[in-house]
Amino acid sequence: MKNNTNKLYWKISATFLLILVVLGTTYILISTYTARQYFQEVNQKLHAGLAESTVKEVQPFIDGRVDTTAVQDIMHSMMVINPSVEVYLLDTEGKIITYVAPYKRVKLEEIDLAPVQTFIAAEEKPFIQGPDPRHPGSKKVFSAASIEEDGNLQGYLYIVLASEEQTAVSATLFGSYMLGLGSRLFFITLISALIIGLIAIWYITRNLRSIISVVQRFKEGDLQARICPRASNDIPVLGETFNEMAESIVANIDQLKSVENLRRELIANVSHDLRTPLAIMQGYIETLQIKEGQLSVEERQQYLQVVLNSSENLSHLISQLFEYSKLEAKQIEPQKEPFFMGELAQDIYQKYQILAREKGIDLQLSVPEGIPMVFADVGLVERGIQNLMDNAIRYTPEGGDVIIALKSGDNSVEVRIVNTGIGIPEEEQSYIFERYRQSGKKSDSKGAGLGLAIAKKILELHNARISVRSKINEETAFMFSLPAWSQHPA
Fold first, then answer.
1. Residue 337: CB partners within 8 Å, gap ≥ 6?
2. What is the phi-psi region of residue 151: left when phi exceeds 0, alpha when psi lies from -120 to 50, beta otherwise?
3. N or C, where is the chain less crowded by C-beta within 10 Å?
4. Which DSSP string corresponds to 53-112?
5. Cα atoms found within 13 Å of the Cα of residue 60, Cβ hemisphere only
6. Backbone phi, psi, residue 224, to 5°
7. Distance of alpha carbon 221 from alpha carbon 230, whole angstroms
8. What is the CATH number of the domain that holds 352?
9. Are residues 477 and 382 part of one domain?
10. Is the pLDDT of residue 78 over 80?
C-alpha cells in the first residue's frame, strides 16, 4: 500500500516537472521573440526620419532623371557613417533603380510599396516591417521617404535599418545573451517551482493516502472501515461514494448470509415434508405386502387410500416448490389484462363452497355494486387468492366463518380474506410470508409453509403489498389491493 502511494506521489511529481519544463521552454521562446520585436521597434523609432533627412540633403532626381553620381556619393557616405543600413532608390512603381548594399547581393528587382506608403503617410511612425530585397519573403524594419521634383512624385528612398550582416551579428550576440539569461531564470524558476510543487503535492495527497489506507483495511476484511469526512474534504465525492459502496457491500453480505440461512432452513423443511408422505406410503405398502391375504377388502381399500392421499400430498408439495422457485427466480412474467374482480371472487366462492360445507365452515362473499375492473394477471391473482383461501379454511375450526370481501378504494380494489379461529400471535406475524415459516400452530394439511410465500411473490409481481391483521382467538384478515383499470387505459 505504501509503495502504491509513493508511486502515485512520484507520478504526479514527474508530471508536474514535465509541465514546468514545457512552460519554461515556452516562456523562453516567447520572451526571445518579444525581445527581438522590442529591439527592432526601438531601432525603427530611433531612425524613422533617416530617409526623409537624406532626401532633404540630396536631390536624387534632376529634370526627372536620376543623378547617379550624387546618389552614389550620399549612399556611400551613409554606409561609411552607418554600415548597418542598406539604401535603395525606387521608382514610383517600386522597381529598384539603384542601391548600396554589402556584397551587392540583391535578389529582388522591385518591392511591394504598400508598407512604404503606409509608413510615409503616418504622422506618428508606426512599427512596421517591409520587404528585404536581399531575402525574398523576409521582413525588416525600415525608413522611407517620397522623392518629389516640382511637386511631382519621382520615386522613393527606401532604407533597411538592419542589414544582413548586422542581423547575423546581433542574432549571435542576442542568442548568447538570451541563452545565458534564460537558462539562469529557467533553472532558478524550475527548481523553486519544483520544490514548492512537491511540498504542495505531498500536502494535497495526504488525505488521499488516508483514503487508500481505509480502502486497504476494507479490502483486508475490516468491513466497518469508513472514510471520515475530514479525510475526504479535498475529494468529498470519492469519500461519500466509497462509504455508500461499503454500506451496500455490507448489506449485500448480510443479505447473502440471511439467504444462506433460509436456504439451509428450506432444505431441512423440504426434506422433512418430502420424507413424511414417503414414509407413510412406504409403511402402508410394506403392511400390504406383509399382511397379504390377511386384510379384508375394506382394510385394503383403506390402506390404498392412505397411500393415494400421501402421493397426492407429495405431488402437491413438489408442485408448490417448482412454482415458488420460478417466482423467486423471476421466470414468470405476468400477462396483465383488465378483468372484473367481482366475477373472479364469485368463481372462487363457488369452488370452495363444497370444501367449506364438509368442514362445517360458513363461507361468505361480499361484493358491493360498482366494483371496477382491475388490471392484473387473472391466472396469477386467482392462484394467490386460492392460497389465501386454503390457509383460511385450514385454520378455521368447525362452525367458524370465512369471508371473501371486496372494497373500492382510491383508484384500486381491495381484496380481503377473513377467517375466524385461534389467530396469529403478533410476534409471529412478521415472518408468516417467508418460505417454510409458519406460526406455532401445527397443521396436517398438505404443503403447509409455501402457500402464503407464493401469494406474496405473486402480488410482488403486480407491485402490490399483502398485509395481515390478526387477533388471538378472534379472527385473521389478509389484505391486498390491485390497481383499477381506469389507471391503465388501453
1. 375, 376, 377, 378
2. left
3. C
4. HHHHH---EETTEE-HHHHHHHHHHHHHH-TT-EEEEE-TTSBEEEEE-GGG----SB--
5. 27
6. -95, 0
7. 23
8. 3.30.565.10
9. yes
10. no
Q: Tell whether 413 and 306 lie within a shared domain.
A: no
CA distance 54 to 59: 9
- The amino acid occupying position 299 is E
- Angle (CA) 203-209-210 rounded to 5° is 105
Q: In terms of domains, do 179 and 257 share one?
A: no
Give whole-number Cα distances, 411 to 99, 375, 380, 481, 488, in Å: 103, 11, 21, 10, 10
pLDDT (mean) for 425-439:
71
Q: Domain span at residue 80?
A: 48-160
Q: Which three cell numbers stand for residue 419?
A: 377467517
- Same structural domain, 354 and 479: yes
* pLDDT bracket for residue 290 (50, 70, 90): confident
Residues 291 and 248 in one domain: yes
DSSP 396: P
Same-domain check for residues 263 and 407: no
The single residue listed with the C-alpha cell 408422505 is 277
* 246-261 pLDDT, tens digit each: 888 888 888 777 767 7
Choose among 395, 384, 486, 472: nearest CA to 433: 384
Quote the distance between the C-alpha of residue 127 and its chain's center. Answer: 54
DSSP for 266-331, written as a single string: HHHHHHHHHHHHHHHHHHHHHHHHHTTTTS-HHHHHHHHHHHHHHHHHHHHHHHHHHHHHHHHTT-
Q: Write out the three cell numbers for 452.
A: 402464503
Instruction: Tell me the pTM.
Output: 0.46
- Tens of pLDDT, residue by residue over 126-155, are 888 899 888 888 888 888 988 887 778 888
DSSP code, position 484 = B
> In this structure, which amino acid lies at residue 408?
S
125, 160, 195 - which closes a domain? 160
Residue of 421, 415, 416 lying closest to 394 (CA atoms):
421
